[in-house]
Amino acid sequence: MKVFYKDRKINKETYFFEAPLLPLFLIWIISCCILFFALGDLPLRDFDEGTVARVSYELSQRSGINKLLPTIWGEPYLNKPPGLHWLIANFINLSTDKNGTGQLPSEFVIRFVPALLSTFVVPIGGLIQWKLRPSDTTSCLTTSAILLTLMPIARHGRLAMLDGTLLTVMASFWLIIISIHNQKKNRFSLFLAGLISSFLLLLKAPLMIPIGISALIPTLLNTKKWSYSGFKWYCLGIIPGISWHVWHSFQRGAGALWLWWGDGIGRVLLETSSGSGQRFIVPFIEILEGGWPWLGLLPLGIYIAFQERTKISGQWYLSTAIIMALAIVPLKTQYPWYVHPLWVPFSLICGPALSSILKYRRPKSVQLILTKFFQSTLFIISVATTLFGILAFFGIAKGLESYTSIALSTGIFWLIGSILLLGNRLRIKKCAIISLITGNIIGLLILMGSNFWLWELNESWSVIPISKMINDSEAINIKMYGSYGRPSLNWYSSQLIKDFSNNKLVPKGWILLNNQNKVQNNKKLTSCKSVNEHIDWYLYYCGEQIKSFDSK
What is the torsion angle, in degrees rounded to the nearest 10, for the CA atoms of residue 210, residue 214, residue 219 and residue 220? Predict the structure, then answer.
């Protein structure tokens, strides 16, 4: 059965190799430089990195069929499927000394696989644009350039989390689906699409639904006939992912449903977690914070997408953006990284908009207005960023001096780009775009080499000195007073530290306390021995149970 698109026919087998592969490769190399620069210099963060590291490490210590069942501190891990954890575990086995030293893998080892996989979304995004807009080299490269220079993509891609890898897998799935024009001749492509779907099921299983729907809509709109003869190849490819979930349900019973409902669709749709009070406002804040300097292109990109709504390009832009937004914005549980899947549609929409500015000297009235909007917003944000950097440099902006180099490097290059963009000559406009891209690359490299790229949510103390205090004391079976439990502290201490704040009795054995005044003035600790301390953290050993600090 032949599947062909109304607005174009493609019969060239070598069409993919006509894409600007060399420029895309060079852009990918730059992406690798950004994501791997000083990758292991900072400790793992909470909550995801500490959790991902521990699950991956335990998988690396297992063998045979046991390696298929993830655990955390010896208990079943039911938060996410182990697709990425398996890859990190294998890299741990490849890179870690196996002489039985018991030393934890380095931060670089834990982050390497997610960082590497995250880089591939940059060229893949360009190839998607190439398929949607044949022979439009400019749109292809501008799309990749936008993906390269978006701060959220670079930052989250470096973290030992699932979100950066998810972006690459999602983009790969869309690229394969767009590339299928004849089901009979593209059996391998359909099989590959099934394999990618399998990995999605082993990464963040519920997201397979909106990702699949967003690809299905434009595919059905552009298919005159539909045959299921080639669909069996897709089903063959998705078997591994489905098989793991079925086998996992037999092994862990009702607990396996937690992946889909309890800690999946049900939690994010129906429960408001800590830090999610703003709910649907969070995605808009994240787009507003992380979309510069390209955010001003969005209205023009949306306009172009609606202009092309009868073509496959416009249908893909609108379908992916709308369906993914509908899957993310209404969630009751909202965290900054939940908006991550929207960056690929954002770049696909903004790529042609940026390309149109380079192509058209005299755009139509609406397009001219939206182009002027981009130029004006870019000029305003570049001036504001540059002034911020100058104020910080001279110490006028107190407490923000550390951000001087980032603000000045991006602000000055953005300002140069915004001024050059006002010119009519193509060469000058190209220099403007190069200036914008250069400013972001320099700013990202400075950011990734600093301590600022690894900010955490609601965490105000470092786990490294506390874990060192615990390890130096050789304390085991530690209980922590208060709800301060952090997966990264568990990771660096090589043990699970539980809290006892709700218990009426302080347990016998090792206890970890904070709050200096409460510790120093509390008479209940007279029977406990102070073993070690760091600032306002104290490690005690109690020979017997005592009343809880919350008890009268």
Answer: 70
Name, in order, each residue with C-beta under 8 angstroms of 458's C-beta and a sequence gap of 6 or more. 274, 275
| 529 Cβ contact partners less than 8 Å away, ≥ 6 residues apart | 540, 541, 542, 543
Burial of 362 (0-12, 13-18, 19+ CB in 10 A): exposed
Q: Per the structure block, which two tokens stand in for 384?
A: 């504001």
> What 8-state DSSP symbol labels residue 62?
-
Q: How many CB atoms lie within 10 A of CB 243?
A: 12
pLDDT of 279: 67
Q: Which residues pair with 541 in a beta bridge?
A: 510, 529
Q: Using CA atoms, how far apart are residues 542 and 475, in angstroms rounded to an integer?
A: 12
pTM over 0.85: yes
Instruction: Work out the angle between the directed axes of helices 137-149 and 426-448 (0-180°, nearest 10).
Output: 30
Structure tokens at 65: 């069929």
Residue 500 tokens, joined: 């006892």
Positive or negative torsion for Cα 49, 53, 55, 59: positive
Residue 250 corresponds to which tokens in the numbers above?
């037999």
Q: What is the pLDDT of residues 381-413, one digit of tens each?
A: 999 999 988 988 888 877 777 888 899 999 999
Q: Is the pLDDT of residue 416 over 60?
A: yes
310-329 tens-digit pLDDT: 999 999 999 999 999 998 88
- For 439-508, strand residue ranges (E) read 479-480, 498-499, 505-506
User: Which two three-digit tokens encode residue 121?
Assistant: 């979304």
Give burial (CB, 10 Å; 0-12/13-18/19+) of 520: exposed
> What DSSP character marks residue 513?
E
Of 197, 199, 198, 179, residue with least CA distance to 189: 179
Q: For 141-157, give the secondary structure using H, E and C.
A: HHHHHHHHHCHHHHHHH
